DNA sequence: TACCTAACTTAGGCTTCCGAAGTAGCTCAT
DNA sequence: ATGAGCTACTTCGGAAGCCTAAGTTAGGTA
């Protein structure tokens, strides 16, 4: 039996790859003209719906508190990426919507991300990369719906 | 050609899994009695050498500035996890060393991490998990030694 | 009407980083 | 040997990104 190949533990792999991904992404965004982009913005852009999302929804999906999300939206509003519109169905609520500039930025960001995935795939092999990504996706879902493993009375 | 299964993009996978990993790890550490552990501490503990490491080394490996690493070490020193010893080879430098309590904490942390990996492996299948981890490890190395390849999209 | 809850904002604080500037020790050319 | 310049580290001030607590306004219910 071969000794298992040495590798960093999951935590280090995740942390380091996340950092490199973010660095690379924001370099690409800056290169594409989105110089004001910040990592925290992804907590909004990752979840915002095309029809507009409520602050409460965004905060829940990003697993942040309402004030934290509110500040983020403030910032993106200042940058002209999103706008707050009154929710016609509830005057307490506001719908956070992408502006035209916001949609444009989203397209840029998606292209940048696709570019990074492409680079990664080239580095470790397309199929191997895709398989790993699918495993991570499956793991994330398994953790989200956590009736844990075996013990299920 | 089947349509590729839907999945989150790498960035989201990495970010979300990292968060869950950290949450889980620190729950386990607290449960094990390491109530003062903080995520930032891993920037030291992940890289510190058994013979002691210089601040400069630690900062470089963790990709942080010297002042940031210095503060972290201050904190871990206050907690009795590490100590600063004069470096016999250079009186400007200090060797950051684990104390006995530090070693004990490291053992606890390693056990907690192993427990999490075990849980992950159970959720997606041992072999599949290990393969994904190895792919991530390969990717990280490929990014670290980045003679890249050819085309930049 | 009165009350409870929900959506959001404001205020204040903590952590974790960073850049700039300072101190002490090493090295090397003269 | 000594002054110039570099290196190792610390200190200081500040920004980013989050939090909790407490407020405001609107909706639901009796």
- Helix and strand composition category of chain A: mainly alpha
Radius of gyration of chain A over all CA atoms, rounded: 19 Å
Q: What is the H level of CATH, i.e. the homologous superfamily of chain A? A: Winged helix-like DNA-binding domain superfamily/Winged helix DNA-binding domain
Largest interface here, residues on each chain?
A-B, 48 and 48 residues
CATH topology of chain A: Arc Repressor Mutant, subunit A
Strand tally of chain A is 3
| Top CATH class of chain A | Mainly Alpha
Strand order of the main beta sheet of chain A, please?
A: 1-3-2
Beta-strand proportion of chain A: 5-15%
Main β-sheet description of chain A? 3 strands, antiparallel
Offer a few descriptive terms:
disordered C terminus, 153 residues, mainly alpha, homodimer, 59% helix, DNA-binding
Structural summary, described in words:
The structure is a homodimer of 153-residue chains. The first copy, chain A, is mainly alpha-helical and 153 residues long. The first copy, chain A, has a single domain (13-144), classed as Winged helix-like DNA-binding domain superfamily/Winged helix DNA-binding domain (Arc Repressor Mutant, subunit A). Chain A contains 6 helices and 3 strands, in the order ααβααββαα. Chain A has a 3-stranded antiparallel β-sheet. In chain A, a hairpin with a 2-residue loop joins strand 2 and strand 3. The longest helix of chain A is centred in the C-terminal third of the chain and has 25 residues, at 100-124. The N and C termini of chain A lie far apart (38 Å). In chain A, 28% of the residues are buried. Mean pLDDT of chain A is 92; it is low at 149-153. The interface between A and B is large, with 48 and 48 residues. Chain B binds a DNA duplex (30 and 30 nucleotides) through helix 4 and strand 3.
